[in-house]
Amino acid sequence: MSAPSPREVDALRPPAAVLDIARTLHRAGYETWCVGGAVRDALLGISHLDWDLATAARPEVVRKLFRRTVPVGLQFGTVGVLDAAGHMHEVTTFRRDVRTDGRHAEVEFGVSLHDDLARRDFTINAIAWDPIGERLADPFDGRGDLARGLVRAVGEPDERFREDRLRALRAIRFAARFGFTIESHTWDAIGRSAPHLGRLSAERVKQELDKTMEQVMRPSAALALWRESGAFGTLIAALRDVPDVILAAVDALPVPGPPTRPLRRTLRLAALLSGLDPREVPRVLKALKSSNLEVSTVSTLVSLWHDLGDSLAHALATAQADDERVLRHWVARIGRLRLAAFARLAAAHWWARREVGQPAPTAAEWRALYRRMVRIAFRDPLDIADLAVDGDDLRRVGVPGGPLLGRVLHGLVAFVLDDPARNTPDALLAEATRLAAEAR
After folding, report:
1. Which of 93, 255, 352, 355 is 20 to 30 A away from residue 101, measured at CA?
2. Phi-psi label, residue 301: left if phi above 0, alpha if psi -120 to 50, beta otherwise
3. Measured between alpha carbons, how far is residue 84 from residues 47, 53, 63, 87, 327 in Å?
4. To which H or E segment does residue 182 belong?
5. 3-state DSSP: the chain helix, strand, coil percent, rounded to 5?
6. In which residue ranges of the chain is pLDDT below 50?
């Protein structure tokens, strides 16, 4: 145990509901500590909403002491305790690993706090705070590593990574998130662990990649370490040699607040995969167990970038960007609802290229063109729903249903993209009759 400084005591004040849970366990005679990321972040001066507790009380005791609980992971000793506001706080019995296969662990209860901290991944995550007695337990000098800006495994690094292969990726994320260095022995062990990362489930790998995209200001720092350690080679072979300019594009994407975090993750994932053949992107995402929506959104953005990126850059370097007919066709290809996301992706790529001395449109040039494209998107007819006629109108003038009707409708869209003034019933029905006759 060590005496905290006044600054640390002030930083290590958990929410009142967490303090109430700790008091209840203490009064029942069970040693209880705040542990994990909340303690680490508090010492770094970062606010953290979720404070976890570790206790000597076994899960069945915790469930008896509190009126509202959730069996989050009883086999691992974790019980969710709901506070008065309905927010859940995880309370886990002191434990140590008995057996592990690199994915799952079998744990033993009835051990000490020191044993519990010794099974944790990194020293900066193996610090415990007693909110009742205001004591710090830091048996592995996690506070020292926080001060040194170091990610270091608890004990023998190879053993920690054999216990859970995901820890190699977590080390990389923590280092990138906090701007820390990975301690040399820990880094060497990450490299030795990389060939075994295939033992991890796709869901856990995707979750770690998502956290990197969401939590790290400059993900390229983490993604470069995935590449250098061999993690990409094992987990996403298509990204084994992903170039720095692609990683820089990931960094260049905007960092909005929490309400738009899924958009940040999706855009950054699109940037990361945008150097691949578009046909390969859905396969990569499905192997990572991405949602159908994410597969569709990211794959479409990557395809659009491959189809239009060079054309747009060329247009900005020539008079072609002045031709609104050309712009309408591009906006129609991108789609109104994807235009903003595509614009951010393009801006990120061009920023990254400029940073390494490659030719690319300037930010001002792209902003000016994007504003014109937005005006077109919300002024001109771009798709079938915008036409002044519909399928029923075409059938009434003799266009048969089925595939031919669909081809005629698409032909009418191209007709009005060339000149929006043509979007009148008379002009469209005349053109539809011509297109149908030509197809027969």
Report:
1. 93
2. alpha
3. 21, 17, 16, 7, 56
4. strand 181-182
5. 60, 10, 25
6. 256-260
> Strands 128-130, 32-35: parallel, antiparallel or unpaired by DSSP?
antiparallel
Angle at 38 between CA 32 and CA 42, to 5 degrees: 110
| Amino acid of residue 184 | S
Distances (CA, A) of 329 to 302, 339, 373, 376: 18, 13, 10, 10
Residue 435 Cα distances to 382, 395, 409, 414, angstroms: 19, 13, 10, 12
Q: Specify the residue for token string 């140590």.
A: 96
Backbone angles phi, psi at 137, to 5 degrees: -110, 120
Residue with tokens 């000793």: 77
- For residue 52, give both structure tokens: 């976890």
Which candidate, 271, 248, 212, places its Cα nearest to that of 353?
248
φ and ψ of 205, to 5 deg? -65, -45
Across 13-110, where does the E strand assignment appear? 32-35, 52-55, 69-73, 78-82, 88-93, 95-100, 105-109
Comparing CA positions, the residue from 177, 273, 272 lying closest to residue 221 is 177
d(CA 95, CA 89): 18
Q: End-to-end alpha-carbon separation of the chain, Å?
A: 88
pLDDT at 104: 55
Q: At 7, which amino acid appears?
A: R
Give CA separation, 211 vs 217, 241, 261, 296, in Å.
Answer: 11, 22, 10, 20
- State pTM to two decimals: 0.88
Tokens of 295: 């597969």
H or E element, residue 324: helix 324-334
Token pair for residue 281?
């992107």
pLDDT the model gives residue 259: 42
Contact 271, 348 (CB under 8 A): yes
pLDDT given for residue 73 in this prediction: 81
Query: Can you point out the beta strands (E) in 121-165?
Result: 128-130, 135-137, 150-151
Q: Are 128 and 136 in contact, with CB atoms under 8 Å apart?
A: yes
Tens-place pLDDT, residues 397-426: 999 989 999 999 999 999 999 999 999 999
